[in-house]
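Milestone 3.1: sequence recovery, worked example.
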């Protein structure tokens, strides 16, 4: 499953609500009057928003007669203080779903915000991509958040594309032998290398992309010169907001960054009863 759809959202949000509410529900909110209430969701810092549907589902799966009005769209840049959505529902519904709703929204928006920071520091020729370093069971959401931040998705999972990495080579012993076995699979093939010697040995073989792993900038430039336009090119390894522009200036096709999903800080978002 690559796309965000309502069945996926429903399943993931239900699991999160069960985690927070079982076995006895919100035992604190049960002690208050269950009156009709209104709330607003507010950005407490600048960022790029995503995950609003997950947020909406959290409230609608918790109670009846919920009105959730989005004030922004996923992918929209917002300033601190911006109202992102308003909710009309019973008080217990709002309070019981609040944390689950904000967890999804803050997490996804944090990924979108960080991705957008990386994208803003690159040229138009280089795509910023995420990796498979995602939270278990949240990969679809996290890759969606990357796209909303202006980034692109690397392969979705292990069955999507063939990627030959260092440990595959250690098992098979011969990189050339593995590459030849992939020729008629009908799948996109990426070969990961970490030195110029490896590159020279595989030049001319049939595959789509070379991923340069943890190379210094000088060696990367030499490799890109050798490659020319024979293969798509990608770089990965210790890319930060401080050094991203240097790698981007090489005009490499893609830069993949694991921290987009595994280290993004949650965007500060709050809910206030009004």
């Amino acid at each position: 499953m690559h796309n965000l759809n309502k069945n996926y959202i429903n399943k993931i949000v239900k699991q999160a609500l069960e985690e927070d509410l079982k076995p006895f529900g919100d035992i604190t909110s049960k002690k208050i009057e269950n009156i009709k209430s209104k709330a607003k969701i507010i950005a407490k810092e600048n960022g790029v928003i995503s995950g609003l549907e997950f947020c909406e589902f959290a409230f609608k799966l918790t109670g009846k007669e919920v009105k959730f009005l989005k004030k922004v769209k996923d992918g929209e840049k917002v300033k601190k203080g911006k109202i992102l959505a308003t909710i009309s529902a019973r008080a217990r519904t709002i309070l019981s779903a609040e944390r689950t709703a904000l967890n999804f929204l803050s997490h996804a928006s944090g990924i979108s915000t960080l991705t957008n920071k990386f994208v803003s520091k690159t040229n138009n020729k280089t795509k910023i991509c995420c990796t498979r370093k995602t939270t278990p069971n949240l990969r679809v959401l996290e890759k969606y958040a990357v796209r909303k931040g202006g980034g692109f998705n690397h392969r979705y999972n292990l069955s999507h594309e063939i990627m030959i990495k260092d440990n595959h080579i250690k098992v098979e012993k011969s990189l050339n032998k593995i590459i030849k076995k992939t020729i008629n699979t009908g799948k996109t093939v990426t070969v990961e290398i970490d030195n110029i010697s490896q590159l020279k040995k595989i030049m001319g073989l049939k595959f789509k992309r070379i991923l340069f792993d943890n190379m210094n900038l000088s060696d990367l430039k030499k490799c890109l010169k050798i490659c020319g336009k024979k293969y798509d090119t990608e770089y990965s390894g210790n890319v930060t907001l401080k050094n991203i522009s240097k790698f981007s200036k090489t005009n490499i096709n893609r830069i993949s960054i694991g921290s987009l999903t595994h280290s993004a800080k949650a965007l500060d978002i709050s809910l206030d009863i009004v």
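Residues 170 and 251 are 31 Å apart (CA to CA). The chain has two domains: 6-113+265-273, 119-262.
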